[in-house]
Design goal:
Helix 2 (70-80) runs parallel beside helix 3. Strands 2-3-4-1-5-7-6 form a 7-stranded mixed sheet, with helices on both faces. The protein has helices spanning 21-32, 70-80, 114-123, 146-153, 159-179; strands at residues 2-6, 39-41, 46-53, 56-63, 88-98, 102-106, 129-136. It is built from 5 helices and 7 strands; from the N terminus they run βαβββαββαβαα.
Length: 180
């Protein structure tokens, strides 16, 4: 069994923002794998969709906490299904990676991503896989002032950014399937 958690913020206000790329990619996976529509499960405070790929059960989860509390949902799901952190893949936006690029990481720090840090804190480990989808501008992340970063991630994805993200989408989804 594999748990794939996409990070984002619930509600219409945050829909189609850069910070909700985890939700966007889960929607694409659900569609690609023909899983059922996401359904709210109050027990986990998450929208879930479940199915099987090559006889392996896969759970897609969108925490309905805000981004910075995503670890609560991840921990509840791992505990309930008796899974370890090795069974977890977290998909999230990453300001330190240029838009249109991505990285697959395991056993790495949060790199300042509060949602990922909350998962690390709640699980007491960083030994889980992460698919980091770039949303960063072309300039160096160090040149991006922190107060501006908070506003930037909550802005709507532009058409140009969506085009760049769509270009890597197929490759990212194939890598995700490989980790399932």
């Amino acid at each position: 069994m594999k748990l794939i958690v996409g990070l984002g913020n619930p509600g219409e206000k945050y829909k189609n923002t850069r910070h909700n790329l985890g939700f966007l990619f889960l929607d694409k996976l659900r569609e690609k794998w023909s899983f059922p529509v996401f359904k709210l499960h109050k027990k986990f405070n998450a929208e879930l969709s479940q199915g099987e790929i090559d006889d392996k059960k896969i759970i897609l989860a969108k925490p309905q906490t805000f981004m910075n509390l995503s670890g609560e949902t991840a921990k509840k799901l791992l505990d309930f299904y008796k899974l370890s952190a090795n069974d977890l893949l977290v998909i999230h936006d990453d300001l330190d990676i240029t838009c249109g690029k991505y990285k697959l990481a395991t056993d790495s720090s949060s790199a300042g991503h509060n949602g990922v840090q909350n998962i690390i804190d709640k699980l007491n480990t960083k030994k889980f896989a992460r698919l980091r989808i770039g949303i960063g501008p072309e300039k160096e992340p160090a040149d991006f002032p922190q107060p501006e970063a908070g506003d930037f991630v909550l802005e709507k994805i532009t058409k140009e950014e969506l085009r760049k993200i769509s270009e890597i989408e197929k490759e990212v989804l194939e890598k995700t399937e490989g980790t399932a």
